[in-house]
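Worked example (supplementary).
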Amino acid sequence: MLVIIKSAPDTPEGRRGVKLARHMSADIVLLQNGVYFIQKEKLEDLSFYRTVYVLEEDRRLRGLKDNGNYKNIKNINYNSLVDLMGGSDKVVGMF
Amino acid sequence: MSKIAMILRKAPYGDINAAEAVRHALGAVSDDMEVSLILVDGGVLLTRKGQDDTGTGFTNLETSLKDCKEMGVEVVADNLSLIEHGLKEEDVVDGVKLTDEDAIAAILKEAEKTMIF
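After joint prediction of all chains, the assembly is encoded as:
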């Protein structure tokens, strides 16, 4: 299962999306302002430790250089996002 | 010379607010107004160095912020918001004044008009 998050960490929508993914044991895709979740401790604060896909273009645009200290982060481009969504049994978004 | 303060609270690129704040700041300073662009909450993310718009079709707002400073806009960023959003001083583009809420309040007190984005 995949949860897609476009809202920043300082928004209720963004945090709700991460919590839902945690409860449903789903992976998350971060795009637009959602990419800010990869900054310092944002995901750890919400106890999220599954796979995190980050849309590379949105991350670069915002000047976020690296994946912070998360090992479970995968950079994707738009095409692989489409493949991910096609290959997932359930997709929920965008928070 | 009339004084105007513009407060940006939203992170860039997620919606139109950051682009509009910068656009209005440039417009006001071109009309010989004294302009302060005050960045708080997610708005401080506008100051992050290394914004790369290649292939995205977006206007690079780091460049626009530099234009603002070159034209004489005073750009001020709230220290607490920088910490909350994981930005260190070395992450911030040059020429941005890092300050606290008392200094921001003083700017707002002086300004005849305040616009919030």
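Two points are worth noting when inspecting this output. The longest strand of chain A covers residues 2-5. Chain A has a mean pLDDT of 91.
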